[in-house]
Amino acid sequence: MRRLIRFSYRNKDLPPFSCEFGRGRRRRVLDLPLIAWLTVIWVLLWSGLHWANVLTGAVVAVAVCLAFPLPQVDLGLRLHPWGMLRLGGFLLYDMYTSGVRVTRQIFGDRPHRAAVIAVPLRCRSDLMLTATAVAVSNVPGGSVVEVRRATATLFLHVLDADRPAELDAARRSVWRLEELTVRAFGTRDEIARVAVAPPTAPHTGGQPGDQGEDA
Question: Which pick of 79, 94, 154, 155 has the fewest CB atoms within 10 Å?
């Protein structure tokens, strides 16, 4: 049985959360999350959660996947539980502190100067670039206005850009979120990329519409 069925945690060449049947031309790779989702759809169609419906749905899902195999696509997604906990904790903390800072800016008497800054990232994969942009957009005080895929660069609109130190802090926050996101969902090569120092970025910022802004 071990020779006929192999799971991804024993075979690193397989996509995550998958199993392999057979060898050679009869080799089939089953995506376990896809089978689980097809089983859920089957149970919903029958409008009843019974063990017979679940078992029948799983058999039908496996049969469909074996009869109509999909091409193997590795999205580059890896799940690291400790990294996911660290990312979730940092996001909660950053949302709270950023919310307090934005509230002070709104009710403060001193006007603040906004700017658009360019933040080059270390990982160039589409998945990590998108995940980092989503994580940055969820934090108050800054929003991603453009993602440049060719250079893996985020263009971030920040509310507080009165001093160069504020711009540096915004860039460091993005790089910190990138590192935590990659350590939660990235591959080994991507984790090695975020372990090095961030790339250099220009230290200028401007008001939206100025000639000297980073965007």
Answer: 79
